[in-house]
Amino acid sequence: MKVVILCGGQGTRLREETEFRPKPLVEIGDRPIVWHIMKMYSQAGFNDFVLCLGYKGHMIRDYFANYDLHTRDVTLDLGTGGVEFKSSRTEPWRVTLVDTGLDSMTGGRLVRAAHHLGDDDAFMVTYGDGVADVNVAEVLKFHREHGRLATVTAVRPPPRFGEIVEQNGTVLEFAEKPQSSSGWINGGFFVFQREVLKYIDGPHVPLESAPLERLAADRQLMTYRHDGYWRCIDTMRDLEALRSEWTSGAASWRTW
Prior knowledge:
By secondary structure, this protein is an alpha/beta fold. It contains eight helices and 16 strands. The strands form five sheets. Strands 1, 4, 7, 8, 10, 13, 14 and 15 form an eight-stranded mixed β-sheet that branches. It has a two-stranded antiparallel ribbon with strand order 2-3. Strands 5-6 form a two-stranded antiparallel sheet.
């Protein structure tokens, strides 16, 4: 089954990093976040990826075209031009890189990549800037069982501020940056039947607006509730938090 990763946005709220590289190549540890996302899927047995490129897409092409040089020990014979890799391949990935346009919206990128989806009746989709400890194989199982056209993984909003419970000025409870106990948001990690593409009317349609709204109106959209870890990179604060979790060994999304 194909896994589509939306990698074309300009990441304007992370301009400190995305001025120089596309957001999916922003690094956590010594690897781009798109690598972490692909490792999550690969751990669940999904290794066939379609990356929808746009802003600075050539850099993502270069990264995967030279993936062995980035990740394996190698001896280069500058006299003969020979290349000898000293360590074995570690990723059984097939990666299709598709130019889906600089200004396309998320829905339009899916349509432009549709001819690379193969013959499967369904495919998975996620964003190129978010990680989670969600079991994507269970999301797919849930999707197959309910029989509707689309599944979206719903997650809790990330904790950002300390919560105070007070009475007449006296603090009764204080919780530093608690996880929200109510409300769900779109966490990505979708599963779609191919018919979902018919709900997208053009390249400038965000997946998150009319297509999902129409699917909901037709009662063809189901939520898989994930109450575990989920984070995306919207700001430098988000990125610094993920980097800190990785370096401290507390990266909850690392299931491999």
